[in-house]
Structure formats: structure tokens, C-alpha cells
Amino acid sequence: MNTQQIIDAIDLTDTVEELVEAKNFTGIVEAVTPLSTEQVTALLERLPIEQRAIVYRLLPKDNAIEVFERFSPALQRDLIQGLRDGEVATIFSDLDPDDRVWLLDELPAALAPRLLHGLSTKDRQLTSEVLGYPKGSVGRRMTPEYVSTRTDATVGEALQRVHAQLDDAETVYTLPVLDGSRHLIGVVSLRDLLRSASEVGISEIMQDVSAMTAYETAEAAARRCAELGFLALPIVDREDRLVGMLTIDDAARILEHEETEDAARQGGVEPLRRPYLATPVRSLVSSRIVWLLVLAIGATLTVQVLSVFEATLEQVTVLALFMPLMIGTGGNTGNQAATTVTRALALGDVRPKDVWKVLLRELGVGMSLGALLGLLGGVVTTVIYDPSVGLIIGLTLLAVCTMAATIGGIMPMIARALRADPAVFSNPFISTFVDAAGLIVYFMIAQAVLHL
Amino acid sequence: MNTQQIIDAIDLTDTVEELVEAKNFTGIVEAVTPLSTEQVTALLERLPIEQRAIVYRLLPKDNAIEVFERFSPALQRDLIQGLRDGEVATIFSDLDPDDRVWLLDELPAALAPRLLHGLSTKDRQLTSEVLGYPKGSVGRRMTPEYVSTRTDATVGEALQRVHAQLDDAETVYTLPVLDGSRHLIGVVSLRDLLRSASEVGISEIMQDVSAMTAYETAEAAARRCAELGFLALPIVDREDRLVGMLTIDDAARILEHEETEDAARQGGVEPLRRPYLATPVRSLVSSRIVWLLVLAIGATLTVQVLSVFEATLEQVTVLALFMPLMIGTGGNTGNQAATTVTRALALGDVRPKDVWKVLLRELGVGMSLGALLGLLGGVVTTVIYDPSVGLIIGLTLLAVCTMAATIGGIMPMIARALRADPAVFSNPFISTFVDAAGLIVYFMIAQAVLHL
Hints:
The structure is a homodimer of 452-residue chains.
Chain A: H1 3-11, H2 13-21, H3 25-32, H4 37-45, H5 49-57, H6 61-70, H7 73-81, H8 85-94, H9 97-106, H10 111-117, H11 121-131, E1 149-150, H12 155-164, E2 174-178, E3 184-189, H13 190-195, H14 202-205, E4 212-213, H15 218-228, E5 232-236, E6 242-247, H16 248-266, H17 281-308, H18 310-315, H19 318-347, H20 355-384, H21 387-417, H22 422-449
Parallel strand pairs in A: 1-2, 4-5
Antiparallel strand pairs in A: 2-3, 5-6
Helix pairs in contact in A: 1-4, 4-6, 7-9, 9-11, 15-16, 17-22, 19-21, 19-22, 20-21, 21-22
């Protein structure tokens, strides 16, 4: 199936909607049956909530669970609310333990015990293991269903274990190697097992391993797994005993999730939990209003600053003309620095203890940028207006850029130190602070130059 | 190895730098040998360019190539420039075909033919196959080294092929199933092969497959591979014949690369190609100055707008006090809309033909936001200043938010239509346009209310 076929499926949306309106269920079945899991998912994602549940009910069972697994947790919740308890229980028990937890995180707390109760003892135990770890930790995203082997085992024995668990284990391509007390010693890939004679000892083909503890954040573990290109990253407890594996497809899912969140927050919106067109306007508004209010209230600071300088403004109205340019440039410089440093923090290129290095670098960057822009702006305004205005603009740009870059670079470090999300915390603070501070600098320089 | 051990390695940086200064090579070997590939990579990434090459030379050969593969393409280039041709040729031939292409994309064009010439005939042929596809296409990121099987083969025959190619193939866990003329018919997982009796026919256990053509973008293919949780996504030519596989670890690498780029551009900086602390201040400046200039030049539009209304400003200086607040709120609303829609486009939740749906939704969202903020702002300013100011502020907020959200929502769609990157194109345009237009609206309303 290629992209075109997905689009064809999406184009079925209107047809299916009409069929549902017309309660023509056989028609729906005929329309949906020929579609692949992927096409059905794309189609359902674009249907209104109630219709989604109706069409979902009409899918063949195996197809249905695959489709369900592809939905985002929020869509899964929407769907579940439209289904009967029996149907929900079935879906729930068909999911992998870690997928169950994704879903439970979404559902009203009251529902969780009932669903867990419906599971087989083994499933319930596996699931609650995963549920035991704090929200946002990799422990909650790892799979407890893996095939492990032991340092004293042979390749033949390991392969037997793989064969025995081919149906249950979520991952069979990377085997963690444990010692007698379940401590993680290394890993061996299925590929290497197949490559070796069955009497060879695991310890001979075992590779040095990289693991993370179940309490580290899911994002950090996912990024690690992706960077190392591991098919599965072993997860250990504080005593280095293996508790689960983070598979790379889950890692990719986590990274995509994080990416969406960061991108949204950087733009000052709460991330949407559903596809854009499936999100009611009301939710769009509420995903933005809070941020907009915070930023607007912050911006009133500029009103107060300006009222202090109202007299100066009345004397030299021309100063007002450059206000947006000055604060805009400051804001942009600040955001540039914040973006770069936030990213560096996320990738681990910069650590909290590097704060002074960052401060110095951004100071240098800000002064260079300010010098370049200030020179340019100063000359231009001198030509168009007069030298005194040119001097004011030039000096202000120099000062504002230097200040903005430094603050913009430091803010994410402070945010991190305060355990706040740098991406969220930095931008509003910067725009607010830099705007206000920038205006103060601007008018102080103006007063000095014009001897007011 | 856990995070702590990585940090320990990083903390070695200063020690190693001193050892290099002191030309104490045995000392370096002693310091580096006990470290894992991962630790060495983290350590080298933090060394200055010249020192990096020196230390790299001292690594044991197998370890060296693994470390090289972990470097970002830009770091790989830096390193290569510090090595002798012989050393470069060796590294180059040890890489996988697709990794060679990542690297060639980085190197000066002149170097490419020489390096390709050094390869074995088979390697050269495989590499140039991949090189044949346009930059940015998945054809350039896929691996041509995979194990395939045929619809008429048995499980036993397929497993034999896997065994035969265990050493060469980059991926052996997902086998594309082809017909006589290499058309892609389905896929079968190694897990299912191991699960089935050797006389079973492939066609019986084969699964429906999802593929993309080699000419689609690497980002789209990577996102698809991650969303489907495939270990490898088959890549076909325009006739649906298999040409390669995109492995999920490469997909994750591509997505991380894209994520870094988008995050940077959204913040108005060109993405850094090296870790922050390894990037010279000069490069930091040049990664920002262009954007800053573009935005500043755009912002001069506000100066022109304001000079038109200078007379009004002189009469009613109080209007100047609210300028930053008004344009700030407009800019924020616009960026919120742009961020949401850009994201929706990237995820395929919104398609270009949905432009009217988006327009209507953002119009609704903008008016709601504007009504809320306008009411609040209007009341507050009425209390603090006077009703006429309150009316001006209230109406302006309503108008600006409505306009900003609509434009912010449409811009990414236009950008996409113009084949420009929405993330890059939208924000500067919005901030420029919305600021200027916002000021015009503000002063027009003011003039109307105050009968100027």
C-alpha cells in the first residue's frame, strides 16, 4: 500500500459518513472490508466521535484490535466511551501490557480497576508491574514480555527459549543476558544466535550493553534507544536487575509524542490530543486561551513601563515609531538563544553545570548580533531621520540584542534547574521580560542622547 | 552502561584534553581503552576538532568504526578532514551503503569520486544505486542490503537465505516477499518464519505490506515506518519493484534530525550541525543573523505604518502605551494558529484541500479568543483609563485576534502549496504582517472612536 491508497481511503470519509447517517450497516461493511488496517485507521481518525464507534463495531475482530492499537491514546479513549463494557474488556485484554498502560493513563481512574479485574491473572500481574512506575517514566512504557538468557547458557538453549516464547514476547530479536540474580550482564542479538553453533556459550558472543533505569524519563530512554539504533533497550531497576525492555517502535512513538508536545508548547498552545480536524473548535480555543492570557498579562508590564516614559513620548513622538522594531528584535534574539539552548539541553549536549559556558557564549553571540544590527540600523536611521535618532537606535539594538541573547540562553538552564519544561517556561518569560526591559533601555538611551 | 557512566566519560574531557596537549599518547590510550563505544562517542563529541582526530586515531579499529557511525554527519566530516586519505578510505569502505551516502552528502563533491573509487565493485555499485535518488528522498536513506524471499518459496528456503546473508544484510528480521519480476507482494517476519514448519509456503504466512516509493521524502517514510512500528519499511520504485528497505533505526535517526531542524527554524535559527558546546561562536552568530535581519527588515514595515499615524500619536500619546500589547497579542495568536496547523500538515491530519475547513475553524477560534480577551481588556482599561480607551482596546483585540488566527492558520497551507517548509515560512511572515496590519487596525479604530 502506498500513500495514494491511504489518501483514497481518506476520501471515503464522506461516503462512510452518509452510510452511517443512513444506518446502512451492510453498506459500511462492504466499504470497509476491502481496506487494510492502515487505511481503516486513517479513515476512522477523520470520522466524528460517535460515527467512529459505530464503524469500529463493524470491523472484523482481528482487524479491529490492530486498528485500535494504531490510534492515539486520546482517540482510544473517545472510542472506548462509545463502546459497551464487554467490548471494552475484550479490546483491553488483547492489548500488550505497555499499551494497556498508555490507555489506562487516558481513562478515568474509576474505570482502571474494573478493566484490570477483567484480565487473566498473568496479564493483570504484568500490567500492574508496569503501572507501578511513576507517570512519564520509561518503566511505564517498557514491555515486561521479553525473552532473556543467562551467561552460563549455550546458543542452543537460548534459541530454545526464543522458540518457546515466539507467540508471547513483544520482542525476540534482542535477548538480555542475565546472571544468576537477574543482573543485566549484556545482550545478544537473535542474528548472532543464528550465526553461531548451538554449543557455543552465550558469554562468548554476548555484547556489552547499554541500559537505563525504569525511573528515568521515557523521553530520555526513547532518545537513547533511537540514537543507539537498538531494536530494544534493556530497562533495569536501581539494583541493575532487568525489569523490562523498551522496544524501538515504542521509542519512536514516544519521540513523536514528545515532538508534537514541544512543537506545540513552543508555539504557545497546549498540544492537541486528537487530529486537528477531529478537534472541536471549543477545545482549540481552550488549548490557546490560557497561554494567550498569560502572555497578555505579562505584556501589560510594557504598558506600565511606557506610562513611566509618557512625558518623553509626548516630547519626542518619533520614538514611538521604533518601539515595535526594538522590542521585536529583542524578542527574536531571545527566542533564538532559548531555542538553541533548550535543544542542546534536550540532547544532553549541554548540562546544568555548563551554565557559565553558555552565559559567556550567548553574551558573545548577543554582542556580535547587536553590533551588526546596531550598525546597520544606526546608519539607516541617521540617513532617513537624523544622527541623534540613529545613535539611539544603534545603541538600543546593541544593548537589547546582548541582553536578550544572554537571558534567552540562561532561561532554559534556570527552567531545567527548577524542573520546569524549558520549552514551555522560556518563551513567555523571555517575550515578557525582554519587551519590558528593552523599552526601558530604549527610553533611557533616548533620554541620555537627547539630554531630556 | 547507565547515564551516570556516560557523564563520567564526559567528565574525562578535560583530562584527555590535557593529555593531548602534553602529547602523552600512551596516556590517552590508557584513558580511552576501558571506555565503551558509547562513552568514547560522548567524550569525542566534546573535544575540539583537531584533538578529536588525534584521539580517534588512537582507538582500536573495530571500536573506531562503531564510534564513527554514531557521529552526526557534520562531525564525521570534521573528523575526516583531520585524517589521512588512507584512513578515510578504510572508514568509508567499512560503512553501510546508506551510511556512506549520509557522509557523501556532507563531504566536498570533489572527494566523493575518489572515495567511491576506493570501494570494492559490489560496494561501489550498491552505494551508487542509493546515490542515484534525489537528495532528501528516502531512496537515499534506504539500505539496498536486505534479505528477500519469493511467494513460491517455502519457510525452509527463506530461512536458508537468511542464514546465508546473516553477515551482510543490514536487516534480517523483516523479509520482503517478491514475485517473479521483483514486485513487492507482502512481508514476512523472521519471527513468523521461526514459528512455522519449514515446508509451509511463504504465501500462507505472508502479511499484507505497506511500502513507499524511493522518491517520496525521507521524513514521510520515516514517520510512516515509526507510526506503523515496522522494523523495516520496504521501498519500491515507480513500478512497485522492491529497491531497498528503510530500517527503523535509520527512520528514528531521520525523525530526530528533522525534529532538531524544525525546532530550530521555528525559533528562527538555522539548525546547528554540531553539539552546542562544539559549535564556534562565529557559527552561532551566522546561524541567527540572517533570520534576525529578515525579521528586522520585515519589522520596518511597522515603522512606516506608524509614521502614517504620527499625527494621531501626537494628539493621543496614550495610544502608544498599548502598542506593544496589541501587536504582541496579535503575534501570539497568529503563531498559535500557525504552530497547530503546521503540525497537522506534518502529521497528515490536514491536507491542502482542507484549506476552507481550516479557514473557517481558525476564524471561529480567533473570534472566540478575541471576544474573550477584548471583553477582559476593554473592561480593565475602561476602569483604569476611560471608556473610549476601553472601547478602542476591546475592539482592537477582537479584530486583531480574529485576523491573526485566520492568517496564522492559512499561512502554513500556502507555504505547503508553494513547496516551502511551513515551519520556516510562516512565523516571520506572520509576525511581520500581523504587527503591521494590527497597528493599522488599532489606529483606524482609535480614529473612529475618538472622531479624529
